[in-house]
Design a protein that fits this description.
- This protein is an alpha/beta fold and 286 residues long.
- Helix content is 40%, strand content 23%.
- The protein has a six-stranded mixed sheet with strand order 2-1-3-5-6-4, with helices on both faces. A six-stranded parallel sheet has the order 9-8-7-10-11-12, with helices on both faces.
- α6 (135-146) links the parallel β7 (127-131) and β8.
- Bound molecules: NADPH dihydro-nicotinamide-adenine-dinucleotide phosphate (NDP).
- Residues 68, 107, 110, 132-137, 156-158, 161, 200-203, 205-206, 208, 211, 226-228, 249, 252-253, 256 line the site of NADPH dihydro-nicotinamide-adenine-dinucleotide phosphate.
- NADPH dihydro-nicotinamide-adenine-dinucleotide phosphate binds at residues 68, 107, 110, 132-137, 156-158, 161, 200-203, 205-206, 208, 211, 226-228, 249, 252-253, 256.
């Protein structure tokens, strides 16, 4: 654990965590908004998430981002959860409120902002395919439904997980007038084309282009992979080859970070300049 400092401390906790771009993003948000803070990476032992969070609070920690594989553990550790973290059953943000942790999930807000403002695609009335049923998919489904797309299909390699995720969100979908159902990866192709296809799986990490067939795409569909950097290249090439607008997950990463920063510091940073700087940084091989 690094030495304590008089400045408020924030960190991203994960395992692995060395690759995380969160320190870069939050340091730029702090500069831009004139906030004095320290942001670092903390590698948690796989069986030591709660202990690391506790130690971090004792050393002046005020808030954390939570990444793989601890997103499902974070709500249990917190004394309170926001409604969207409860719905997801997963959290990517913790904030210390007095001596209590509050757990939130800003992944969905980040994705929705990136799709609607970054890519300029309104979700209302659209057909949306969410591929994946892990932590990221759990975080984004509720906020996607809030935008009132006409229908959402969730498909996953392990179909039971897609079913569970859909059941968990059934009431939320009904409340927002969305037709929500689960299907297999294969069946998704028969139910296309979709206006927006979101790859929330880790398939790109394993070098795969797409877990679903090209029939899910129509001319001009938006195809988003939550992955970014060189790992997203096969998905981007696959989507473009089939006539879709392809987008990686870097915009979502910056947007979900801005939501966390606003929760911690009470000020909302501008995302566009930070996204642009981050893209340049990655393109330069840093
Ligand atoms: P999880 O480990 O919780 O879930 C992984 C998901 O990927 C599961 O649905 C799993 O299916 C599926 N999967 C893994 N390998 C394959 C494959 N070869 N073919 C098809 N499906 C596969 O991970 P997360 O949900 O936390 O993260 C998913 C991705 O989203 C990661 O790449 C992560 O980096 C990215 N992400 C990006 C964010 C951003 O801000 N841009 C934020 C959060 C995540 P099964 O259930 O069958 O195992």
């Amino acid at each position: 654990m690094p030495l304590s400092t008089a400045l408020d401390r924030y960190a991203v906790l994960g395992n692995p965590v060395a690759h995380s771009r969160s320190p870069y993003i939050h340091q730029r948000f702090a500069l831009q908004t004139g906030q004095q803070l320290v942001y670092e990476r903390l590698l948690c032992p796989l069986d030591g998430f709660a202990h690391t969070v506790q130690q971090f609070a004792q050393a002046g920690g005020r808030g954390c981002n939570v990444t793989v594989p601890f997103k499902f553990e974070a709500p249990a550790l917190a004394q309170r959860c926001t409604p969207r973290a409860l719905l997801a059953g997963a959290a990517n943000v913790l904030v210390l409120d007095g001596s209590d942790w509050l757990a939130d999930n800003s992944d969905g807000e980040g994705l929705v902002n990136d799709i609607q403002q970054g890519a300029g695609v309104a979700l209302a009335g659209r057909a949306v395919l969410l591929v994946g049923a892990g932590g990221a998919a759990a975080g984004v489904l509720g906020p996607l439904l809030e935008q009132r797309p006409a229908r959402v299909r969730v498909c996953n390699r392990s179909p039971d997980k897609a079913n569970t995720l859909v059941l968990r969100h059934a009431a939320w979908a009904a409340q927002h007038g969305v037709e929500l159902a689960a299907c297999s990866l294969q069946a998704a192709a028969q139910q296309g084309p979709f206006s927006v296809v979101i790859n929330a799986t880790a398939s790109s990490l394993q070098g795969g282009a797409s877990p679903v067939a090209p029939a899910v795409l129509g001319a001009g569909s938006l195809a988003v992979d939550l992955m970014y950097g060189s790992a997203a290249a096969p998905w981007l090439a696959w989507a473009q080859a089939h006539g879709a607008h392809a987008r990686d997950g870097l915009g979502m990463l910056v947007e979900q970070a801005a939501a966390a920063f606003a929760l911690w510091r009470g000020v909302r940073p501008a995302t566009a300049p930070v996204l642009q700087a981050l893209r340049q940084d990655i393109a330069a091989g840093h």
